[in-house]
């Protein structure tokens, strides 16, 4: 499982005019979480269980097409949602 | 988290003076604060972080909210973290004339920005902070004006960092290749 944070992609006019000395506010990304699972299908529970037991992911052994683990579409949607919301954290469920 | 190759998949954090900024760009499960250990990995991906950052990747969970000047503290212990075939281009000195130990009292003339390095942790600015046990970083290509790796007891993991392997990595950096305290 992993996450990565997405910065707000459009700076507001007020922010860009803030002086250097105002940076003591030390704002951080809003604590909004966007799970890939909410934006598209994730790898099956069997795949996740296999990974949890420590066995290699199926695509490592060539027994399952890589497309079965492809979360590109869900990731694209999650990034867009985070951007629209003004920033946040995109969460990768196990297996993504 | 697996991409399809460093030349095929990249994530870029925009260079802009924004109102919000993440303290850690990649981390373990944010729902886990301390135990159980977080196990995850990142591979086959290029990361561009050419503006503000404190830590690009940490093997633990997200930093605890223990204060704006210690964003790396209080991460969960990680176990078995892997970082394979990852390319990082990072600029630790965005809009700053001082190095990563700056307290934010100096700035590049004519440049106004919302964050100082102190806000983001100040003394770290590592491409990867390794806090757990049995981690492995191999075949990575890292270019950074700050530290490449940071590890040790104060890196944030509970119980200390141990049993790590760094192998076959290409590092071009201005800070420490590996900063490890006792």
Overall 3D shape of chain B: globular
Helix-strand pattern of chain A, N to C?
EHEHHHE
Name the strands of the widest sheet of chain A in spatial order. 1-3-2
- Oligomeric state: heterodimer
How does the helix and strand content of chain A classify structurally? alpha+beta
Report the strand count of chain B: 12
Order of helices and strands of chain B: EEEEEEEEEEEE
Uncertain parts of chain B: 62-74, 97-105
Structure description:
Chain A is an alpha+beta fold and 96 residues long. Chain A has one domain. Chain A is 30% helix and 14% strand. Chain A has helices spanning 13-16, 45-52, 58-61, 72-84; strands spanning 2-6, 33-35, 88-92. Chain B has one domain (1-182). Chain B has strands at 10-13, 24-27, 41-49, 55-58, 82-90, 126-130, 136-138, 141-144, 147-151, 165-167, 170-173, 178-180. In chain B, strands 1, 3, 5, 7, 8, 10 and 11 form a 7-stranded parallel β-sheet that branches. Chain B has a 5-stranded parallel β-sheet with strand order 2-4-6-9-12, with no helix packed on it. The N and C termini of chain B lie far apart (31 Å). Chain A binds chain B through residues 1-9, 11-12, 14-20, 22-24, 26-30, 33, 66, 69, 86-87, 89, 91-92, 96, and chain B through 1-2, 4, 11, 13-14, 16-30, 38, 40-42, 62, 68, 104, 107, 112-116, 118-119.
